[in-house]
Each structure stands twice: as structure tokens, then as C-alpha cells.
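Suppose a colleague, Dr. K., hands you the sequence of a protein chain of 590 amino acids and asks what its three-dimensional shape might be. Before reaching for any lab equipment, you can write down a predicted structure in C-alpha cell form. Begin with the sequence itself:
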Amino acid sequence: MADAAVKTKRETTTAQGIDANAAKAEQELTDGFHLVIEALKLNGLNTIYGVPGIPITDFGRMAQAEGMRVISFRHEQNAGNAAAIAGFLTKKPGICLTVSAPGFLNGLTALANATTNCFPMILISGSSEREIVDLQQGDYEELDQLAIAKPLCTAAFRVLHAADIGIGVARAIRAAVSGRPGGVYLDLPAKLFSQVMDAEAGAKSLVKVIDPAPAQLPAPAAVKRALDVLKGAKRPLIILGKGAAYAQADDQIRALVEKSGIPFLPMSMAKGLLPDTHPQCAGAARSTVLKDSDVVMLIGARLNWLLSHGKGKNWGEPGSKKFIQVDIEPKEMDSNVEIVAPLVGDIGSCVSALLEGIDGKWPAPPADWTNAVKTKKEENIAKMAPKLMKNSAPMDFHGALGVLRTVIKERPDAILVNEGANTLDLARGVIDMYQPRKRLDVGTWGIMGIGMGFAVAAAVETGKPVLAVEGDSAFGFSGMEVETICRYKLPVCIVIFNNNGIYRGTDVNPTGGPDVATTVFVKGSRYDKMMEACGGVGVHVTTPDELKRAVDAAMDSGKPTLINAVIDPAAGSESGRIGNLNPQSKIRKK
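The predicted structure, expressed as C-alpha cells, is then:
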């Protein structure tokens, strides 16, 4: 018996040794899946937004198993929007993961929008094998994704060999955040994931990106030129763009504004860099300062359509202004009008250099200018106040926004996501912001559908409560993501301004036919029931008082909530006065 016991023990020990050797052999190999995951983690990219599917379903499972946070959406465009705004909030590229072909195309809108808005993100998509795509042999979801992505992003790369994954990810990170940030596409063919290589060699192939967005210092002569122009101004103005918010140079920007004494105008996503209630804020006198200023300093703002390209009647007489522009991209200078003092460099370095030149002897702006701005502000605020206090049922836009203005004032740490037509246009001017990077909206392209993606990422990346104020039309682009919000139990309160249509819900079919007008939705839709169906809280409100109570309860609870706020169907107008720009609207009907 003793001999038998020894033999069994020996056999067991031998078997264990074989198992240990097998396990060791396994540990000495790695594959493409794990190399991509480890490359991301090595660079502090620990959250992925995406939609599972062939060939990246297992990638998502493995990433989650390796401790990454993987947020699965219902549509790739919304996942891409989440990744883009994550990049804006963190200054690290947000990661969006999609399947090939249709999934890639769904994410492409978000990638292009990120590039246009200078949000760093990386769209990673699985793809068909090159040898089949190049011969157009009809592979599953065959598409030359790299060629399609290139014109729409800052850079595009394809990785074909597991040993190159580390370099591919590193190049994507650097391209996304260095210089002017933007979207990057990373193409990973399906069989890359299953490629196997020595684990030690794989680990050595990974790259930790050093100083991915190095400071770009402005030339001293350019700084002096800008200060000389600014010092000679009689009616100076500073315009802060979302680039200034992205820079996270908050203290320096505030010091520059306050030490110079110059009125400032924040673009919508720059609101809160200094509080909108700051005495130098000219937001409530926008038209006046744009028209009457003589020197304008742009910090992280571009003279695009949002600023009427720096010319036209909004800017007063032609040639009446001198522009100073702070931007990291030299090609941005003179894009629409002459920039007399271009200041090229990263915003933090440029603003710090300007501060050094603004010492205690810096002249305050002329009192007649600052007093004129103050008077116009007070006049406009007084005109607006009664509209915001209106307590009617159904509500109009101003009455409802007056409530949400108070909510943000009481909860300045909350993040406001905003999209729509009138819902966006009016909220920009009504709702004051008090902290930087707390207002997220449609940005440079004015693209609808960003709402739920932005809301999810804002909650995930910051842990702060989110208030998403949506037009009923804008909500429709991403509304199914309420299930995502409920699934991850995110502290998001969605308020839908429901006036039964786009712009308004009272339009009629001009032919008198059975179809409703093209801008009209189902009357009395109950979007709150969608949230209830997904396990969240749905609330239906018809008055400002009811709206205030519902939003407060939602923000206090932190539970996923959707508030269907009934707005007068006749309230609202065509956003941006589009009808005035349409020559057909001036043709007399016969």
C-alpha cells in the first residue's frame, strides 16, 4: 500500500509538473487582442466606448476582463460622440471601438465631427483582410476603410502585424493630441487579433508615449507685437473659444482677463472659464461688443460661421478692427480676415507669455468703453428677466429655460449637455455657467445627435451629475441610448422640450393632403415612457414649477431620469432665421 501511495504521489507530481510547464508555455505567448489592450492601458487609456460585433466582440470581453471599462452603446455614432467628448474633457484621446464596414461608417460621423471640433479621439475598427479587399473579392463587410477615413480625420493608420501594434497605438495617440487635436482612425484587420507572438517580445514592442502633446512656445517677437496692438486699443475685446477650455489653462486665462480689465465674450463651450456673471463678461452685450470693438483678441476661437467669419454687418464697418489670434495651428491665421498679430503656440504657453507682459503699469481699457458694455448688458438682462419668470401652461422656451438657469446656478458643478434648434439657440444665452468645461453642445458643425453620447461620457469620465437639455427633434437622433444610461445606472437627467415638432409643432401640409407637415411629430408624445420602459424614472411636466421640482428630484437622486417638458407647439422659430436666407421664401406664390 505504501508503494502504491508513493507511486500515486509521484504520478501526481509528474502530472502537475507537466501542467505547470504547459501553463508556462501558454504564458510565454500573447496575441493581438491582448497586445492592443495592454498598449492602451500602458498609456492610461482605460475606457472604451463602442458597440460589440464581429470581429471585435471578444476584444471587448477581454478588455473588460483586464480591468478596462467598456461602455457598450446601441449605435456606433453615439459611442463615437462619447469618445470625442471624453477627449475634450480629459485631454487624452477617447477610444471608440466598432465593427467593420457599416459599424465603421456609423462611427465615421463622430470621427469627422471630432476632427472639426479639435476633440482628440481614436476610432478603432475591425476590418476585412487586405488581400481580399484589394482584389474586391466580396469578403464579409468588405470595405477599404482606411481610404474612406483618411480625408475625414487628422491621421489614419493600419496595423497588419502583431509586433507593430505598440507602434500603431502610439502613433495614433500622438496624432490625436499633438498640435491641433483631432480624430484618428486605427484599422485592425480581423486576423491581426488572433496573431500569436512571444509574450516577452510582445511586451517589449509596446510603447509608452512620452510627452504626446509637447508645449509649443510662441516667438517673443510675436508676443510683443500682440501686446503692442492690445495696448493701443480704445475698445478692446477678448473672445474665448472652446480651444481655451480644452487647454485647461484656467488660472492663466482668468489672470489675463482680470489683469487686463478687458471685456470678454465666451463662445458657448468656453462659458464658465470665468463665470458668466463676472463683471467683465460681455455675453449679454454680444452684438454691441462685436460691432463696436476696435481690437479683438481670439484665444482658442476661430473666425468661422459662428463668428460670421469676422466680417459683415455684425462686425461693423469693414476695416474697423484689428485682430490678434492665439492658436496652435499657423494655417488658421488669415483664414477669413487679416490677423495683424498672429500668436502661434499652445494656449497655456501663449497666455503665460502675454501675462508676463501685462504688469502693474498696464493701462485699463477706457472707461467710456467698459461703461458702454456694462450699460448694454444691464439693459438686455433687464429685458430678458420677465420672460424667464413666465409661469404658463404649456410653457414657452424662455419660461422653461428660466427654471434650468436656476438649477445650474444652484448646482454649478453639474455638467450641462445641450442640443436642438430653439432649445440650443436660446439656452446659450439664458443659462449662465460658473465653472469650465461644464457646458457641452453641438460645437463647430452644429451637428444634432450628440446629446446622449456626450451625456454618457460626461457622467463616466467625471462622475458628476449631468443635465441634458434636448429639443424633441435632437433627442430623436440618439434617444435609444436611454437604455444605455439605465443599464449603467448613470446620474443623467434628460429634459426634452417637447413642442411636437422641429422648430414648432403647428405647421400644416400646404397641399391639404393626409400627410402631416414635414416638421411635425406625433402630438403629445410621451418620451418619459421610454425611460420608464428601460427601468429609469419618467416624469411628465407642463409648468415651470413642475419642471423645477422634477429636475431637483432627479439631480438629488442620481437616478437615470427623463422629463417630458410640454412646450407650447406654437413657440419657437426657424433656428438661425433660416427662412430669411432661403431665396425661395421670397418668391411670391402664384
